[in-house]
Amino acid sequence: MFGFALTYWVQRLLVFNTLVFLFTYAVPDVTYWFAFTPARVLVQPWTIITYMFLHGNLMHLFFNMLGLFFFGPPLEARWGSNEFLKFYFICGLGGALLSFLFAFNSPIIGASAAVYGVMLAFAMNWPDTPIYIWGIFPVPAKILVGVLAVFSLMSAFQGASDGVAHFAHIGGFVAAWGYLKWDRRRRGSGMDRFRKMMSKRKLTVVPGGKDSGDSGGVTRNDAGNARNDNVLLDELDRVLDKISSHGMSSLTPAERKLLDDVSRRFRQN
Fold it and tell me: Which domains, and CATH codes, for the chain?
């Protein structure tokens, strides 16, 4: 279903995390200044960001980057680079916040919170996509992420002393879930308002009209050869549903032109 072409920010995050790991391996003392310890956040506020780029060992780095490599590109391709990067940092900040609340004196490092959020977003978008464990055993994305979430919850609240920042993992999940639910509601309410406004307008598409193109020009007349208003509104509904589900980046040039034409005529009238 998905290829492995690296998208803009996934590629840069992979490279930057690797370079930072090599630097901290050569100069380990710098970790103290960039790891996030909730109790020191007032004197080291930058660490709520920098901790996401530090890793304790090669396996820590490998598994985080592996998750980003597999689950990040489809999301960035669907959402666009800016939205993906914003989401990545929101999940990382969620990990820092939950660590502040429940692990006040424990330093944390790693991209796990951000990557776990990316994994949850992938599972919410493609829940039944099979993820092959060790390249052999297919597990639906929603099951894999659900198991990881339950494991993190159990480990965190049972006080597991395995050196893993389980509260940061949970924070990444919670931030991802909350942001995606809020964003979906925001998009939905915006689409509903737009549909309601458009339904009050008598809009037709006149082939070959002044603004015609691949998607047709939009006018407010009753020309005999105009498209039926309902056809246009159905097409708008389809495009708006596509934006709600897949984001603006998923639109074709013709669909973008249709939205631009309708919006422009709506503003003029």
Answer: 8-182 (1.20.1540.10), 201-268 (no CATH)
